[in-house]
Amino acid sequence: MLYATTSAAEKRAAFRERLGSGELLQVPGAFNPLSARLIEEKGFDGVYISGAVLAADLGLPDIGLTTLSEVAGRSTQIARMTNLPALVDADTGFGEPMNVARTVQELEDAGVAGLHIEDQVNPKRCGHLDGKQVVDADTAVKRIRAAADARRDPNLLIMARTDIRGVDGMAAAIDRAKRLVDAGADAVFPEAMRDLGEFEAMCESLDVPVLANMTEFGKSELFTAQQLQDAGIRIVIYPVTLLRSAMGAAERTLDLIAAEGTQASAVDDMQTRAQLYELLDYSGYNAFDSGIFNFTVPGR
Ligand SMILES: C[C@](O)(C(=O)O)[C@H](CC(=O)O)C(=O)O
Ligand SMILES: [Mg+2]
Question: Catalytic: 89?
């Protein structure tokens, strides 16, 4: 009821432990706090807080227009609604290495279990688009070092994302990832790998957990959890999947209302009132006030 029953510190410790277990953790993107509840209910291992989703949610392109306050605010809202660890996309860290340090502390205060900082230049863009630019190794290393030094909870996971694969190729990506691990990264997010062999090569070259980004309409094929696990991947994110699904459904329903004058034939595909109330745990609030959930809910 109301909020997560575990503290941020407990979630971070649990996340570290799960990561150490060698299994693949599946982490869908929560496009709002409510969807984080659904992700938890369905038994997933964590929730991802995507920069692309946050920007899109505000009606903005994903080109570094969102602010640290917006990302921290959304992280607070999502992290407190679930007992799952939250992993947040901190883009380039919102500025110079000193800004990165502040970003880490703000996001730590927001209650996330981990965050990733990338090596793109500003204005950044979706990692699966062409025409990206990355900063030099020295600047990338300084960002990660600043991030690792700034955390107060040693269990906060600092993940380094490198976008260099799409710019300088795979050898450069492995080299960059190694340097970022030496700088203090606890995990690596190699962006826009082309095939499973590239994921495998990255995992073999590093002794920290590696993340795979299974975003749709991107550079990577959509591999199964089994394929990724076999390649050595330890975390897979589905960052924009739920937003794309929800928006696809919303568009179809709008078209239907326009065409048929009613939404009636879309109702079977909707979350029912009863399902929504269950997810919101209406009945749990009766512990405070037995007058809250004293009605029956129509629908399944
Ligand atoms: C993972 C990502 O950084 C995100 O913000 O969710 C994006 C996802 C996307 O735009 O599809 C990315 O750069 O891959
Ligand atoms: Mg992003």
Answer: yes
CA of 238 to the centre of ligand 1 (A): 9
Residue of 161, 165, 176, 244 marked catalytic: 161
Number of domains observed in the structure of the chain: 1
Q: Ligand 1 mean position to 52 CA, how many Å?
A: 5
What is the ipTM for the molecules in this complex? 0.99
Domain contains 252:
no
181-225: pLDDT as tens digits: 999 999 999 999 999 999 999 999 999 999 999 999 998 899 999
Q: Tell me the C-alpha distance between 138 and 124, whole Å.
A: 18
pLDDT, tens digit (0-9, with 9 covering 90-100), for 101-110: 999 999 999 9
The two structure tokens encoding residue 245: 């699904």
CATH of the domain at 73: 3.20.20.60
The residue range of the domain holding 74 is 8-240
Q: Does 48 participate in catalysis according to the annotation?
A: yes
